[in-house]
Amino acid sequence: PERARLNRDLLRATVDIALKEVCATHSHVIPRGTDVELLNRELSDEAIGLGPLEALLADDRVSEIMVVDPNTIYIERDGKITLCESRFTDNEAVRSTLERIVMPLGRRIDESAPMLDARLPDGSRVNAIIPPLATRGPAITIRKFSKVPLTMDNLLGFGSITERMAQFLRRSVRARKNIIICGGTGSG
């Protein structure tokens, strides 16, 4: 994993240098007022990363990313689902991103296997479907896990559980009892 990260970092640095050179050489065709750093980052993310998903994956407040189609990406941030401004250029860009997700895993997603469940290197869960199962083009859902786990105090503070429920759970854990907890998608 460490070696792979170093290789990715080296590749990213090499691509960033090349993109800066290209932008400097072709600055006459870049519209005035364009944030060249942002342009370089977006091009780099598109070429070797996960495109517009890179910034969303880096945002610790984002817990879920839902790509409905290239122009429709929803995110769950701080428990609220909102339409995101990020976009893919087209269906092929979404497919290319999917290929970059599955290639290191030795998996595939194609017409003969149009649905995929996988994990990203950080442990995030990925579910993807492509046509013919997906009617609007490739769709991707990524469920990220918080770097800071929820505590019983968090659950009480959010109003997710009552004090009596917290006491029951604490006693059950101390007594090493089996516990089944279930709920709707995303409620965990």
- Classification by helices and strands: alpha+beta
**Main pleated-sheet profile:** 6 strands, antiparallel
**Distance, first to last CA:** 28 Å
Beta percentage is 15-25%
Q: How many distinct beta strands?
A: 6
Taking Cα atoms only, what radius of gyration do you get, to the nearest Å? 21 Å
The mean pLDDT is: 86
- Count of alpha/pi helices: 6
- List the uncertain runs: none
Which strand order do you get reading across the main beta sheet? 3-2-1-6-5-4
H/E topology pattern: HHHEEEHEEEHH
Q: Tell me the overall shape.
A: elongated
Query: How much helix is in the residues?
Result: 25-40%
Outline the structure in words.
The protein has 188 residues and is an alpha+beta fold. It has helices spanning 2-25, 36-48, 53-58, 91-102, 152-158, 163-174; strands at residues 62-69, 72-77, 80-83, 115-119, 125-129, 139-143.
Keywords:
6 strands; six-stranded antiparallel sheet; elongated; 6 helices; alpha+beta; 18% strand; 188 residues
SSE topology:
Layout: H1 2-25, H2 36-48, H3 53-58, E1 62-69, E2 72-77, E3 80-83, H4 91-102, E4 115-119, E5 125-129, E6 139-143, H5 152-158, H6 163-174
Antiparallel strand pairs: 1-2, 1-6, 2-3, 4-5, 5-6
Helix pairs in contact: 1-2
